[in-house]
Amino acid sequence: MPHLTLAEARAGAEASLLRAGAGPAMAAATAEACVAAEATGQAGHGLSRIPQYAMLLRVGRADGAAVPRVVNERGGCCLVDAADGLAYPAMELAVAQAIARARDHGVACVGVTNSGHSGVSGLHAGALAEAGLVGLMFTNSPSAMPLPGGRRPRLSTNPVAAAFPREGGPPLVIDLALSATARGKIMVAAKEGRPIPPGWALDAEGRPTTDAKAALSGVMLAIGGDRGLALALMVELLAVALTGAAFGWEADSFFEERGNRPRLGQLLIAIDPAGLAGTERYLARLADIAAAAEEDGVRLPGARRAALGARAATDGIDVGDAVWDEIVSGGTAPPPRPSPARGEGA
Fold this sequence. Notes:
By secondary structure, this protein is α+β, with helices and mostly antiparallel strands. The strands form three sheets. The protein has a seven-stranded mixed beta sheet with strand order 2-3-4-11-5-6-7, sandwiched between helices. A three-stranded antiparallel beta sheet has the order 9-8-10. Helix content is 40%, strand content 16%. The chain has helices at residues 6-20, 24-39, 49-58, 87-105, 121-130, 183-192, 212-216, 226-241, 279-296, 303-315, 321-328, and strands at 3-4, 69-74, 77-81, 107-115, 134-139, 160-164, 172-176, 201-202, 208-209, 219-220, 264-271, 317-318. It has two domains: 1-58 and 316-346, Malate/L-lactate/L-sulpholactate dehydrogenase, four-helix barrel (Hypothetical Oxidoreductase Yiak, Chain: A, domain 1), CATH 1.10.1530; 71-179 and 222-301, Malate/L-lactate/L-sulpholactate dehydrogenase, NADPH binding domain (Ribosomal Protein S8, Chain: A, domain 1, 2-Layer Sandwich), CATH 3.30.1370. Helix 1 packs across helix 2 (24-39), helix 1 (6-20) packs parallel to helix 3 (49-58) and helix 4 runs parallel beside helix 5 (121-130).
């Protein structure tokens, strides 16, 4: 299993994307986000995504030459067009716009349209929190769940994230998908021939099922049943109706070579605490909830990921052989060689 510094991981991922046709800025932004996900223990959105993104670029489902730009604006609001590229350069622009506009107006709302898979929502919301703002993010993806009361996949798992800046500690980051479980868990159960718990999915006929294979041809269910689906509908509308992007059922799977350009949507909201109770009062209230968590012996959301990220910055990361081999085989120029030992910085 190769051991890499974060800098080596970024360089390898970047090289793979460049060979697949991404422009330098797109390759750098995508590699940065994937390595950050890997470093904070979110491997499902980490380096394993690089071969998938490279495939989308090679077959034309993503435009490697795309340059995101602001196409509409009014006060604290603006819309960023990702121009059918990988999502990450557009997300960087959206974060920058949200920070600047929230500082000018107290609150900002920035949409992204014609976008793709945007990875870990908590990282984008967390970037707002690092700037001292409360950050909210909503995004959609190809459909996996039905509308409330429905049987056909219409909504995505629609992750939501919120990040709250703190004094003297990492932001409090809440990041979750609205499905009852990750689709990957159902795929593993199907491969191993194991049943899945009730309440995870419906089969193709709209019947509740514990058969993992039947679930893969049906729909996933949301946390909290129809209430969770109503929340997923809310996220879909925020990410799509406000940005003019594609609904989940209009976007083809990220995992297939054949398909359309997904043209998904993301929505960022940034709030400056100074415009409400004031930054000092806000930070005091955050300190109170942190103290309550410590008193109860529990860890606030985001603390584990922050600790993993800090450790990875010093010690580097281990990358699975299959993932690294796939990144290396994505082109002719080899990525940098893995480090033989731990302890090198990023």
